[in-house]
User: What shape does this take?
Amino acid sequence: MGSLSYSERAATIVTETSLLVSALHGADLSVRVPSAPDWTLNQLLRHLGHAHRWVAEMIHRRVPETDRSFSKAHSVSEYAGETAEELGPWLTEGAALLSDALLSVDVDDPIAVMVGMPGPRFWSRRMAHETVVHRFDAMDALGLPFEVDEEIADDTLHEWMTTLLPFIFGTRPGTAGLLGTGALYFEAPSAQWTVDLTGSAPRVARGEEKWDVAARGSAFDLVLAVYQRRGTEGLEVRGDAGLLAEFLAAMRF
Assistant: This one.
């Protein structure tokens, strides 16, 4: 189930947002985000804050299924000219609203269900890791160093392997071309994963199994690779590098 508990994920949303806000003082929010070049940093921050508020509202409303009709997270093109002093308190408030909403319900309450998973369980993970990855995006845009706890990085990688990878294969027809190609092994000090693509559907397993290509690095270096934030930079790659490149290109989330 990953490294973090439900309450720890709720807390991560707040602490990661706080770290993000603390790095924004005096920043130029008009800079483009390298990992999301269609967005400025201003727009990325609005995206994250709206995502927090949207999930908090779904939890408060106790909607039975995930409802994107009132999400503003991807309607951010009009935002420009805002300052960190304006957005910082708004981001902080939204993270607290989401954390409080999650902690007000049970992890397995049938609210905002997504991919068959109770919404509190799914969205606590998704929003914790969304916040971590977008904090990286912001630090990258500003040229600032980034660090994250290994336990959080491991939890982020766990979600990607067990939830996002199957979701991507289930919703993107183009990924079918990867099936029947081979197996990939991802190794971090705290976690090892094998992604077997030799069959008619992807199979993900903990630990090392027979592989055609292996990528080794820290848990967050692997996160950056599978999220296509940094390619294979910082990873030790052995075996069929072409298979790894093809896989990662299809997996961007």
